[in-house]
Amino acid sequence: MNNSFSSYRSLFPVLSEYVHVASCSQGAIAQPVSQAIEDYHNELLSLGTNWKQATLKLEATREKFAELINAEPDEIAILPSVSDALSAVATSLSYHPSKNEIIVTDMDFPTVGHVWYAQEKYGATVSLMRSLDGGIPLKQYEKDVTERTLLTCMSHASYENGIVQNLKGIADIVHKKGSLLFVDASQSAGHIPIDVKEMNIDMLASVTRKYMLGIPGVAFLYMKKELAEQVKPRHTGWFGQESETKFDIFHSTYAAGSRRFETGTPSFISVYAAHAALKLLLDVGVSPIHFYLKELSRFAKEFGVQNGLQINLPFDTEITSGITSFHMANASEIEQRLKEKNILVSARNNVIRIAPHFYNTKEEVAYAITELSKFAK
Fold first, then answer.
1. Closest among 181, 224, 187, 222 to 208, alpha carbons compared
2. How confident is the model over 126-137, as pLDDT tens digits?
3. Which of the chain's termini has less CB crowding within 10 Å, N or C?
């Protein structure tokens, strides 16, 4: 384990009882995050209402995520889930016969398809881009994205096999064709560096409960401010209004930038958790986390193969995230059996995902894979 990370292990109580290598599903909860949840609870107990404190925390959390991806706070909306972020964008677009194609990929999480296919009766045409050997080469974007493509939606890191796509390369291609780019960063934000300005990303969404160390109830939507200012969301609410129309039922003035996509009162308890989680993450540093997890990923793949496991492609750690997945029949059953041994992994379809974070050791990964390999024999 990276010595600079060892001092943080004591912040994660679950590690004293479990080998937690399921960050692709739910990251381990740190004591500062737990304390933030208690702070929210105690404010309500002692004050009766904590609206001012909670709204200040909301803005501080917005600033933390903006810092994480190199955006401006006004370019960030705080929503309950990535599904909500997708729906907010999908229902704000205009679908014209000559410019109505939405491209999704078979590497995307299913909710992506659910949201975009639901727009077909409103004028969208959805096209599926298929992966090759677990990934999508840039030449496929060159081929499939056309002048008719309104928006290209893709995952930064695959939820199933961990492959990482080249955001800057894809952005250059789709923009040349006149398409917008929407990035689902649910499996990358928190352990892979993201710079939305340098990568020239139009829109990006991510959730806090995975590698960003938070809990369910908070997701973030980034949209370039100049783009957001042109959009009039149909999915909005009083938090998406400027102050002068928040309480005016007859008039609506959208808030500046991406804030206009916000809806009703957020889950403040999740916001408190997200703020503490992002603070911890930024203190540790995403770049050193990324470097360390590439090492763990390489080890996990090599050790898994040595123990007779079949990797769900690809093997190349240069294009994969911290997720290593192995083909396993009855994956959900195996996930439960490993939990009974105090090993937390994550099953998806016919694969078991090993997804450590900076708080994990190589020995923990080896132990989890050793126990997993017993089910393959």
1. 187
2. 999 999 888 899
3. C
